[in-house]
Q: What sequence folds into this?
């Protein structure tokens, strides 16, 4: 093989491999919890349609342009027997105008449906009676408030199937982004702003989401789940969430309060009055599948690990309260942040707290 | 006038060796080398930061570094590569090549040129010194408020970042003005604007972008600095400030910045492809005007970085339109490059390989960019690895490959010797393969929902395989840079002697010796076309007569730029100590700056090349 051919073969291999991978992905990639290309709502499907259009057009452009480049390399490589300079062409105006117009045309083909998708996504939600959820991004968990039920919960969002959900997304600290890929595009949670977003889930199940705007140390551990249930299950869930804690838990509440947890977490109420506490609402924590914003499964062992050494589970988590130092909702930021060691609660206390939280259902 | 200048004291001819000669040099070529060497060192620093990140992400639940360290790594990787590697690598070429390509003997303001370098040098030292204080910047390379406000980041890390960027901005602005004046005023007789090489044109566009875009980020960062240090409320929502104002200011700078990074590489490729095809650049006017169009449009697209922030449908429809329109001049360039090759006699020397790699990879970056120009798609792809893949295809597959093409192309001009072709080809193929192994899978990771800037992920998220592949690719890239380094070093001694015109070039830099004398040209060559040297060699265009001009005017070395640069760095850098310790460092810096400027003004700026010995 002559040295003059080697580069051509190299470029050809790269071209073929990349082209094949490009074609392979939409057919061959497995369904993953955060996949963006397996839509479950009409909102996500509108995106998907647009995506498919652009995906195949750009693939065609890739094959055409790079193929042309490779063909030119092959055909016009120096063979060593040339006697004169090649023809010194300086340009060709009709050709320039031609490919400029062709590009403009191709852009328009994609721009027009793109505008329709924008109108659809950002237009009014297709329902007169949507379920409204106020979403607040926090370092590093998600807080949800259902005005219709005067209900506050965290990280695990529960919505009924086939009812449009309208979110009002905001933040109380830094910018986060609220995103359940299979249910639709993301929306930034910007402090001081209330951003609308909607989708209508059409399939029951548990779907994964994650914060996608870098928000500090534990940005990677700001996950969330959405549980789409049947309307009946949803109603049952609401009813359960509104049930006050069992009376036998009162002993545990004493420990909970004495250990300082009460400064940031509420277990006795989950209505509007306890919105925007420093930590997630825990009144129904035992009903959730995960703790620490999707970092750990919700088991007694994990709860124990989490309470015992939050910094290890979640770097810079604000839950590292040495007992009794935090005294009120206004103060914890100052007193929680600088402690880099684990909690100084004794093991027996942690066990008591875990059994208390296990009762919160 | 001539007699008057002769009565001024003559400075001595510049010493050519020793550390002091590098510190005091005002020769554009030596400043170019300083820029290049510094930028390459910082390129390796940024690369090591990337390698550590890739090791952390090689599998789920990585334990190589902590979350805090990882966040500092991606912040400094981005900041370093953009402001301290790619920009100054471009500056290295502007410095070394522009005067040679326009037939000038230096830039318009040689000492200002040295000052630009020293301010850049101190700025880079300053921002990286944050590692020594244990507080490297960690708010991301765009440091969105309120995460970058004092409530979001209490340590000095963000202060290092803000003030470091301000210092680097000063350097870029000074260089911008310098090169605009140089290109507009110092071209050889006969070199009209449309006869300028396309690399010079792209440089000119870039300098206008620098001069127009950097003031915007300066304002954005001043607001942020005031919020942090002096308690103002520009971006503080609780006090009525607006975090999105920061994003607008940042991206109004940030998008032109993208073109600041890519246009020099496009210019280099527009020089290399014709040379190795034995043809002129096809449709040079169209390439030039599309470069200008990209520069203009670049200021009208910034909100495509903000589709997810909820600017509303009208903004999204408008900004997606301007963004998609950028595809038009970009496509025009790519078509013209292919048409340049078409009908040529292609030599696959290393510069050509890199230039072709640029066209190949940059096209992919352009196409993936088109995907998220569609707001609906962007809502899925924004802040995922898809974006990471896209901008690495543009900045690595584009800018870096283009800059490597430039290094191989002009190395014989810098050193008088050619780089080894076998090692060059090895470097190219390892880089191309490593690059695609690293970044092509990131498209998939992004479409599989992996957010960028996460220091860890769980196994059940299913991102392990492609991350593993990407990490392997990153190490291939790293090894291939070592091949380059070895080739660069050894070729200086062992490389084939190049002569003045090793590639059969068409532009003026090949009309002088390699390396060129301090005064660049013995006689400024006459120009009557866009390919002056080609026409001299093959069409009998008039050449410069033999011998050397009398009394060639070159500036003497000066130690004042480094002193003024130190002063500027102290003024800015000291600002972060003001709330706690008072303005003493800034004040001291101000006096150094003042003294330096004073010395500068009274130092004679006239000198002459040593007389020719026959």
A:
């Amino acid at each position: 093989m002559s040295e003059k051919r080697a580069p051509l073969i190299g470029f050809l291999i790269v071209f073929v491999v990349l082209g094949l991978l490009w074609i392979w992905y939409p057919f061959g990639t497995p369904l993953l919890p955060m996949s963006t290309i397996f839509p479950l709502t009409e909102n996500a499907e509108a995106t998907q349609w647009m995506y498919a259009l652009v995906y195949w057009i750009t693939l065609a452009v890739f094959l055409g342009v790079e193929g042309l480049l490779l063909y030119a390399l092959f055909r016009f490589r120096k063979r060593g027997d040339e006697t004169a300079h090649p023809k010194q062409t300086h340009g060709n105006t009709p050709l320039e105008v031609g490919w400029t117009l062709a590009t403009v045309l191709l852009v328009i083909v994609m721009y027009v449906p793109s505008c329709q998708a924008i109108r659809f996504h950002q237009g009014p939600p297709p329902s007169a009676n949507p379920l409204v959820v106020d979403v607040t991004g926090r370092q590093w968990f998600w807080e949800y408030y259902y005005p219709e039920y005067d209900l506050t919960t965290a990280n695990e969002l529960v919505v009924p199937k086939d009812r449009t959900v309208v979110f009002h997304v905001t933040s109380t600290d830094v910018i986060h982004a609220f995103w359940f890929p299979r249910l639709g595009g993301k929306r930034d949670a910007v402090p001081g702003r209330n951003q609308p977003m909607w989708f209508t889930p059409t399939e029951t199940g548990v779907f994964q989401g994650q914060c996608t705007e870098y928000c500090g140390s534990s940005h990677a551990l700001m996950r969330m789940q959405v549980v789409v249930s049947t309307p009946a299950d949803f109603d049952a869930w609401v009813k359960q969430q509104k049930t006050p804690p069992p009376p036998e838990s009162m002993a545990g509440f004493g420990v909970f309060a004495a250990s300082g947890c009460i400064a940031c977490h509420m277990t006795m109420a989950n209505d509007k009055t306890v919105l925007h506490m420093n930590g997630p609402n825990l009144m129904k924590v035992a009903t959730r599948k995960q703790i620490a914003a999707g970092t750990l499964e919700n088991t007694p062992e994990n709860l124990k690990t989490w309470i015992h050494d939050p910094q290890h589970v979640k770097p810079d988590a604000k839950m590292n309260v040495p007992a009794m130092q935090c005294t009120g909702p206004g103060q914890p930021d100052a007193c929680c942040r600088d402690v880099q060691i684990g909690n100084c609660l004794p093991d027996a206390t942690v066990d008591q707290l875990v059994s208390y939280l296990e009762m919160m259902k | 006038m001539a007699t008057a200048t002769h009565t001024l004291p003559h400075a001595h001819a510049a010493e050519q060796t020793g550390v002091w000669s590098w510190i005091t040099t005002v020769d554009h070529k030596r400043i170019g080398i300083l820029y290049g060497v510094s930028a390459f060192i910082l390129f390796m620093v940024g690369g090591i930061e990337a390698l550590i990140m890739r090791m952390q992400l090689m599998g789920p639940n990585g334990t190589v570094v902590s979350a805090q360290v990882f966040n500092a790594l991606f912040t400094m990787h981005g900041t370093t590569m953009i402001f301290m590697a790619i920009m100054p690598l471009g500056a290295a070429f502007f410095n070394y090549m522009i005067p040679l390509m326009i037939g000038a003997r230096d830039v318009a303001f040689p000492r200002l040129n040295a000052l630009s370098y020293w301010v850049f040098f101190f700025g880079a030292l300053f921002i990286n010194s944050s590692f020594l204080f244990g507080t490297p910047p960690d708010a991301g390379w765009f440091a969105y408020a309120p995460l970058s406000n004092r409530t979001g980041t209490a340590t000095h890390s963000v202060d290092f970042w803000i003030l470091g960027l301000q210092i680097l901005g000063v350097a870029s602005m000074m260089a911008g003005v310098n090169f605009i004046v140089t290109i507009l005023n110092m071209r050889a007789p006969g070199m009209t604007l449309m006869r300028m090489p396309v690399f010079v044109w792209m440089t000119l566009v870039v300098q206008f972008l620098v001069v127009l875009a950097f003031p915007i980020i300066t304002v954005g960062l001043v607001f942020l600095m005031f919020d942090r240090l002096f308690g103002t409320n520009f971006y503080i929502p609780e006090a009525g400030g607006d975090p999105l104002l920061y994003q607008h200011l940042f991206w109004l700078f940030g998008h032109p910045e993208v073109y600041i990074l890519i246009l020099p590489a496009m210019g280099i490729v527009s020089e290399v492809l014709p040379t190795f095809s034995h043809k002129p650049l096809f449709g040079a006017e169209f390439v030039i005007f599309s470069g200008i169009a990209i520069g203009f449009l670049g200021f009208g697209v910034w909100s495509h970085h903000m589709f997810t922030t909820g600017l509303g449908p009208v903004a999204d429809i408008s900004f997606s339109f301007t963004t998609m329109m950028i595809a038009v001049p970009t496509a025009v360039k790519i078509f013209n490059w292919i048409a340049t090759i078409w009908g040529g006699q292609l030599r696959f020397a290393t510069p050509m390989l890199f230039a072709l790699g640029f066209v190949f990879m940059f096209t992919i970056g352009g196409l993936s960019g088109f995907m998220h120009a569609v707001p609906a798609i962007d809502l899925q792809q924004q802040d995922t690895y898809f974006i990471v893949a896209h901008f690495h295809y543009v900045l690595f597959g584009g800018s870096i490959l283009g800059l490597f093409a430039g290094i191989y192309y002009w190395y014989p001009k810098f050193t008088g010797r050619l780089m080894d072709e076998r090692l060059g080809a090895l470097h190219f193929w390892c880089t191309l393969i490593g690059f695609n192994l690293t970044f092509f899978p990131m498209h998939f990771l992004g479409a599989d929902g992996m957010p960028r800037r996460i220091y860890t992920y769980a196994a059940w998220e299913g991102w392990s395989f492609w991350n593993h592949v990407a990490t392997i690719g990153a190490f291939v890239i790293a090894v291939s840079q070592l091949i380059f380094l070895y080739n660069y070093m050894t070729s200086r001694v062992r490389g084939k002697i190049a002569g003045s015109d090793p590639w059969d070039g068409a532009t003026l830099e090949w009309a002088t010796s390699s390396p060129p004398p301090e005064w660049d040209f013995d006689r400024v060559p006459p120009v009557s076309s866009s390919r002056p040297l080609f026409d001299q060699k093959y069409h009998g265009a008039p050449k410069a007569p033999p011998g050397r001009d009398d009394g060639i005017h070159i500036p003497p070395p000066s130690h004042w730029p480094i002193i003024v640069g130190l002063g500027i760095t102290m003024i800015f850098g000291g600002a972060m100590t003001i709330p706690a310790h008072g303005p003493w460092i800034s004040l001291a810096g101000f006096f150094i700056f003042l003294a330096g400027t004073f010395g500068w003004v009274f130092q004679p700026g006239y000198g002459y090349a040593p007389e020719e010995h026959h």
